[in-house]
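Everyone, describe these structure tokens:
***
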Amino acid sequence: MAGSGAPGPLPGPSGPGSALEEEEEDEDPSLDCDGDLEVNPYDGLPFSSRYYELLRQRRELPVWTTKYSFMEHLEGNSGIVLVSGPPGTGKSTQIPQWCAEYALSMQFTHGLVACTQPHSLAALSLSLRVADEMDLNLGHEVGYCVPHEDCCTADTILRFCSDEMLLREMTSDPLLRQYGVVVLDEAQERTVPTDALLGLLKDVLHQRPALRLVVVTSPALEPRLRAFCGDPPVVRVPGHSSPPQLLYRELSAHGHVAAACQAVLDIHRRQEPGHVLIFLASEQEISECCAAIQTEAVALSPALGPLLVLPLHPGVGRAAQRLYETPEESRERRVIVTHWLGDSSFSLGTVRFVIDSGLELRSVYNPRIRAESQVLRPISRSQAESRMQRAAGSPPGTCLRLYSEAFEQRLPPSPAPHVSETSLSRLVLLLKRLDIADMGQCDFLDRPAPESLMQALEDLDYLAALDDDGNLSEVGIIMSEFPLDPQLAKALIASCEFDCVEEMVSLAAMLTASPCFVPLSTHLEEAVALRRRALLHPNGDHFTLINIFNAFQQHAGDEGWCRKHGVCAEALRLAGTVRAELLEVMRRIELPVSPPAFGSDANALNIQRALISGYFLKVARDIDGSGNYVMLTHKHVAHLAPACGYLLRPPPRRLPPWVLYHEFTISQDNCLRVVSEIQPQMLVELAPQYYLSNLPPSEGRDLLMELREKVVAAEDAPAEPESLAEAAGREDEQGDVCVLQ
């Protein structure tokens, strides 16, 4: 969301509406509302006074000078228009509105306008701002669609969505026929869905010449995108005329959080005007920094004015809109503490100080071991430039880099594309659904590594998602219907066979929503831990998650109950939304939904069977009885996470010898998260034979192969002859049983 003016408060219920601006005019039409009232062409209502107030602000944005050029290119025959410019210049708010004007001028004969964002939070925030600027109602003419939340109607003509949602939409409508203009915003973020959409939409343009594709990016990626898109017309948005002052401060490796806090307090004590934007490496550092500043601010003189600290990361949800609320006091200083999410999104025109740590914590997937690594690494030069531009403007601000100029010279020129650092199983499943049998048929700005593609195909083959020709099997087609990772989708499908759908759909929702446990404050830790322990299930963490969700539902979503047990009500509400979506998908494709039976021994075994059917790739064995777990698919050693239910039980604790886990991340502690005990016999029965044979040599593999031989021998053993009397008796017992052929 590259720069907007600072979004104002949400419009009132009578207000939001969208408006056509006249083309770049020399004379400024009377914006004073005297005489006849102008009518909003989108809803037929007169413009409000706020519309004209915001229109004045919009015309001051750097992007406004390019409107005539942009509209000219959009109306041309090139099909693709590339828009390049620094953050904070208004691209993300104005370009979609101009596209809506173009679609209106065509009477929407070619379709509506879709604008994608790499981050759901940015799509939501942009839709709020743009609806306000267009004087339209959010959820009517302007809407948004992000995972688990669709705020669009039949009246929506401008739709903001996450890039993931538009990519999923292509599985049911490969040519996106309901859209006349598609805007891919923040292409420099290089997310997997945006990169895939770039390649796919290039092909769609050959079949739909009337479609317009607008690609919005930072200047650093412009040359590569021009070459990739076949040298389309480029609209270059000027930056702010006054660059910020640049300062460097070299620090120790782990001193950047304390240094950022100290810099904020120094700025506040000097009473220099303007808000502060801090870039740190991770959500944990954001939390630490916010807590430290708030603690220190208590001791500051009230004469300096209030200091409002606002975290900004995906976990804050709708609270991100607090950035744009009108300050209660004119002297209030806002300190926004963020990480990579703020590189391009959430522009604030009043930021005058940027503090950049120069570091980011990213998850990098390793296909050889099927695990992610938490990597703390330097940002790229293009990210550093983008962060510095946040302090540009009039008057120019200051960017403090918590690293040396020599460190800056060693930064990589651009960030790594996510397609090179992410598991591709989900993407390959989607592309297979689009009848792209060979990944070579899909054009990528950067080709995925062959090793990553082979691992993704191998995993899908193990999960029975592919047929002998490498196309999607019936199971694979059903898996692609679910907005889930392939392993979880397969486990959910298997639950239909094992009559535990109600429990598995709750578990899938809990695993998809954000973690439900909240950090405990010191003075409440013991009491809450005792109450939380009552929710633990003896069969493992997966069962505990089902327990928690059921208890939350039984208490009617009571937030007081959540606080007492140290669980997050928002995460549990989201799980309820996800659960309803998954059940709707199952009903639509006519999968059977078994009645609830949680708590019975038979149901527990069935849940384990369903889990193993999807997660047999994620099994580990305790090699010495002391909690040193070795992965079956590779030889990394891991331990149970401190929050694991097996470690929270009162002594004597018994660590399970074989476990199935949901997540393993290579980091300082190498922990397995969400762990449940399984029996190796089940693994032998349910995992594909060729998967077991392909496991690397280990004691665990040898044990499984021995079990497999016993199972095969038992299956091959001739059945003992049955007496006629026994056979007759058995027939009498089963006479009324309905046999499914």
